[in-house]
């Protein structure tokens, strides 16, 4: 393995470094993009119950916000539950944009590795071919086997660069598809939360017992109608 790396020339070292960076990002993204850490089902159910609750405490919202990315977005909507619907929706969308940035962290670095790895491999091959033709110019074509071995060694960097780019591309596409699925779930749950909050805001509350007028029975109404009206004071008798 070491002989293979050594035969690839100086460009093998940046290729190895780029592969180490890609592997580190892939492991980190696998750990960060777990379903239980991004869109846990219990956070969705908790947010719906809190949106339907007539009395909501700040501690409950803070607990939801610290649980997951989904909880952070839904907690923003619960914080804005007293505001008009369009303002509440704007706040949720802003929190969703921040969540998407968190989900897509380090993915641009993977795209950079995918782009530059084949280029570095091609550069290593070109440098190797330059060395081969320089040797031919100096010593001539004395040994064809040695010449073929030099060319094969020059192509090692191209193979390494393409291999790194292909493997990294597979994981990068996988992570992007996973992020898109999470974003769709967040949008659906955020709209559902807005609708629940808005419907609870429009639902009229029944009047309390203290505010209700006292009921008047039919007998009391009849007695009041039969009661004689006293004459006005200061009037002359007819």
TrEMBL record:
Residues 208-227 have a biased composition (Low complexity). GO terms for cellular component: plasma membrane. Residues 68-187 form the MotA/TolQ/ExbB proton channel domain. Keywords: Cell membrane, Membrane, Protein transport, Transmembrane, Transmembrane helix, Transport. Residues 197-238 are annotated as: Disordered. It is a multi-pass membrane protein. The keyword Iron-sulfur does not apply. It is found in: Cell membrane; Membrane. This is Biopolymer transporter ExbB. The keyword Cell membrane applies. The chain crosses the membrane at residues 6-27, 106-136, 148-171. One of its GO terms (biological process) is protein import. Belongs to the exbB/tolQ family.
């Amino acid at each position: 393995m070491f002989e293979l790396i050594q035969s690839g020339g100086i460009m093998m070292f940046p290729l190895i470094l780029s592969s180490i960076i890609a592997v580190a990002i892939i492991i980190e993204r696998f750990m960060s993009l777990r379903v239980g850490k991004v869109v846990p089902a219990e956070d969705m159910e908790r947010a719906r119950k809190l949106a339907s609750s007539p009395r909501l405490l700040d501690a409950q919202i803070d607990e939801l916000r610290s649980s997951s990315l989904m909880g952070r977005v839904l907690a923003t909507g619960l914080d804005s539950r007293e505001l008009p619907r369009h303002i509440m929706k704007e706040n949720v969308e802003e929190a969703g944009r921040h969540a998407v940035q968190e989900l897509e962290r380090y993915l641009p670095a993977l795209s950079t590795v995918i782009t530059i790895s084949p280029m570095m491999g091609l550069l290593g091959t070109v440098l190797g071919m330059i060395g081969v033709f320089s040797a031919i110019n100096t010593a001539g074509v004395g040994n064809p086997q040695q010449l073929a071995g030099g060319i094969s060694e020059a192509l090692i960097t191209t193979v390494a660069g393409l291999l790194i780019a292909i493997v990294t591309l597979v994981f990068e596409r996988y992570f992007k598809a996973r992020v898109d699925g999470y974003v769709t779930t967040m949008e659906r749950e955020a709209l559902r939360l807005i609708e629940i909050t808005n419907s609870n805001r429009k639902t009229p509350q029944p009047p309390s017992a203290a505010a209700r007028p006292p009921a008047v029975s039919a007998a009391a109404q009849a007695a009041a109608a039969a009661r004689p009206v006293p004459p006005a004071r200061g009037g002359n008798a007819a």
